[in-house]
Specification:
six-stranded parallel beta sheet, Alpha/beta knot
Length: about 250
Amino acid sequence: MPSLNQSKHLRALHRRKERRASGEFLVEGPRVLSDLLRTGRPVTLVLYTEASLEEPDGRDLLARIAEAEIPLELVSEVELRKHADTVTPQGWLATAPIPAWTWSDVDGARLLVLDAVRDPGNVGTLIRAAEALGAGGVVMLPGTADPWNPKVVRAASGSSLRLPVFEAGWDDVLARLREWGTPVWVAEADGDIVGRGDPRPRHVAVVLGNEGEGVSVRVRAAADRIIAIPMRGEVESLNAAIAGAILMDRLFGG
């Protein structure tokens, strides 16, 4: 059983303020935990249930954790649910330091920038798509869902442990892009259509805005190009995750 202090810490990590104060985040489920172990990043605590060991690779995962000498606590299903973010957790819950990504880790040739994209599921899916489609990093502008929110971490499915993902202000982002000579292409409904066969830019930062309002006035004003996806029928828009994945596929080239 986790100690009283450990239990308090686990519950606190559901809140952004506490994640920032402690520098840690929650990892839920065997897949993301396994990805975390493969990166070699530190893990500070793992909770697991008896039932989790009967799942495929459950005992192998336990052996890897024990071999790494990570603190382990066997808990009941009820106890795990108290600390997990999901209603029906998958038997594993861990805490780990938030990766300290910086600009020096970023490949500035292909960058995804999120401007006040608030839905955690969309943000996590975009991080996952960014890794799959060749982005050199994902930068969150103010108002975007916390990349270390448990829902974002689950939706990213391990990608935020491998791809540089961090928060920054627009002035800082724009200064970096100008320094690198990376043009800013902003996605908006009234933009130039990006077709499947269009030439791919060698360097580009794709900026996606809020699902309802688009990018901020300041971001749009700095755009080198406004771009859009061709739409058919009576569909007026796509959610941010789908739109972002399509644009990255066409502009980054996978």
